[in-house]
Amino acid sequence: MTPAEHAQLALLLEVAGTPKPGNVDRDRDFPDLRFEHFLAGAIGSGAGLRAAEEGKPVGEAFEQAVEGMSHQEGGNTQFGALLLLVPLVKADELSPESVTEVVEETTVEDAEGFYRAFEHVDVAVSDPPEGMDEFDVRRGSSAVSALREADTTLYDVMELSADKDGIAREWTNGFPRTFQASERIAELDGGISARAAQVYLEFLAHEPDTFVAKRHGKKVAESVLVRAQEALQEAREGNSELVTAFADSLVEEGINPGTTADIVAGGLFVALERGVSP
Amino acid sequence: MTPAEHAQLALLLEVAGTPKPGNVDRDRDFPDLRFEHFLAGAIGSGAGLRAAEEGKPVGEAFEQAVEGMSHQEGGNTQFGALLLLVPLVKADELSPESVTEVVEETTVEDAEGFYRAFEHVDVAVSDPPEGMDEFDVRRGSSAVSALREADTTLYDVMELSADKDGIAREWTNGFPRTFQASERIAELDGGISARAAQVYLEFLAHEPDTFVAKRHGKKVAESVLVRAQEALQEAREGNSELVTAFADSLVEEGINPGTTADIVAGGLFVALERGVSP
C-alpha cells in the first residue's frame, strides 16, 4: 500500500478498535456521530492525503483532506488525526527528525491552508493564548491577514498552542507519542484495531487528553486519566467490566477524549508503514 | 464524492451493516477473516476503482482493484463486489441500459484481465459448464489462450456462468438486483449500513445465494432461503432473536452467502451516487 492508503487505513482501524471509552468505535455510535460518518470521512480524505504524498504543501493537502472528510453529516470526524497524518505522509522517512523537518519547513501559506480548513467543518477550539487574539481561528479571513502581517508559519501557530493542545505538542516535539503508539501497536498481539484500542486506553491512563481539557477543563481531564488507570488495572486483572462502565459514564457525561484517539491513528499509520499488516 | 470514492464507501458500509447472517460484519469476525481485512480490501481497491473512473477498460481496472484488495491476510474479501462495481463506476449514467452498454462492450482483453485477477487471490469457483473446460479459470494462462482462440469477451464469459452465478446474472440482465437493492436502501430509514443489512436479509429470503449453492449445493442454498424467510418474518414482528440464531447457525455450518452481500454492495454504490449520504 502507498503512504496515503496506509493513512486512510489507519483512520479506519482507529475507529474500528473497541472498547475505546468516550469515542465512536466498532461497537458504539453516538446519536449524531456514527461509525459510518468516520468511514465516509476516511474515504473522503483520500485525495488530500494523496496530494500530500505527491508533494503538495502541508497546508494545501490538509485543507483538501479536511474538505473531503466533511462530506458526511456527522461533522468533525478526523480533523486532528489528519493534522498528524499529513506531515507523516510527507516525511522522507518515519523518524522524529524527518517529520520535524517537514513541520519546521511549513510556511505562512501552510498556516493559511490550516485556517481555511476550519471553514469546512465545525471544530472545537479553545481561546487563543493571551495577547494572540488576532490569530484566533474563529476570526476566519481576518486572522489570515494577521498571519501574513506577522509572517506566522503553520509551525509557529502550533508552537503557540503546544501547551494546551496535544496535536500541536506532537508537531513541536518530534511526534513522540505518535511513535510511541506505533511501537506499542507493533509489540502487542492480535488484530490491529484491537491493539489500537488497547494503546488508546493506556495513553488515556498516562496523560490527560487535551481535547477533554479544552472542552471540560483540566480537572475533568485529570479525573478521566485516573478513571482510565483504574479501568486499565482491572482489565489487566482480566476484568473488563470497569472498562465498559467507564465507557458508558464518559458517554453519559458527553466526554470525548478525541486527541488521544487522533494520536493512536498517527501511531497506526507509522506501524502500517513499518510492516504491521491486517 | 467521486464514483470511485462512493464505490469504496459502498464496500465499507456493506461490511459495517449488522446483523448480516453468515458474513463478517461490524459485530462478527471469523477466525481467519476479520472486519479489518475488509477495511484493508476497501482501501486497497481504490486505485483500480479510480482507474475505472478514468476510463481504463473493465478487465484492467478490475484486475488492479483485486490486486490492491489482496494486500491483507484475510484472502478474498470483495472480489464479487468489485466485479459489479467496476462496470457501475464506468457507466455514463446509473441505468440498466447504460451499465449494460459497458458490459456488452467488453473485449477478449477484458476477459484476460478478469482471468489474471484470479492469480491475486483465492476465489471459490464452481466447475465450468459442460464442454467449456478450456475456459476454466483454474487453468490460468492456458485458459487465456483458449479465450483468445475462441474470441471470447468478458461478457461472453459471464453469459456462460449466468445460470449458476448471481454476479454473472447481474451482468447479463441489466443489474436488476443491484438496482432493486439501491431503491430499497433509499426508501428505508436509519443509518445506511443498517439499511443495507436489512436489504441483505430481505434478498437472502427472496433468492438462493449462488455462492452458497456453488460451495454447498442447491439444497443447502434453498434451506438458507427458507430460514432467512423465517428470521425476517420474526424480525418484522419485533423479535430479532431468530436472526441472531440464524446468524450463529450459518457460522457453525460454515455457510457464507457472499453473493447476496456483493449485490448489496453494488446497491449501496448506486444509492450513494443517487444522493443517499451518511
From TrEMBL, chains A, B:
One of the record's GO molecular function terms: triphosphoribosyl-dephospho-CoA synthase activity
Gene3D superfamilies noted in UniProt: Triphosphoribosyl-dephospho-CoA protein (1.10.4200.10)
A Pfam family recorded for this sequence: CitG
Protein name: Triphosphoribosyl-dephospho-CoA protein
Protein's organism: Haladaptatus paucihalophilus DX253
Species classification: Archaea, Methanobacteriati, Methanobacteriota, Stenosarchaea group, Halobacteria
